[in-house]
Specification:
Helix content is 39%, strand content 14%. The chain is of the alpha+beta class. Helix 1 crosses helix 2.
Length: 57
């Protein structure tokens, strides 16, 4: 069973890597960012990092 996980600071280096690892482990991930304008940037970092289909939300 996958857990729902909240990652704060998802637009940072460590946050993005944490999101990728969690997604690849089968977890559902939500993250926080200081500005909604960075949403596309975070999704892009996760996708480039190998996160399954950049599923961060």
């Amino acid at each position: 069973m996958s857990a729902n996980v909240l990652v704060t600071g998802g637009s940072g280096f460590l946050g993005a890597h944490t999101i990728v690892q969690l997604l690849n482990s089968g977890h559902r991930v939500r993250t926080t960012v200081r500005s909604l304008r960075r949403e596309a940037e975070v999704r892009g970092m996760v996708a480039v990092g190998g996160g399954e289909r950049g599923r961060a939300s």
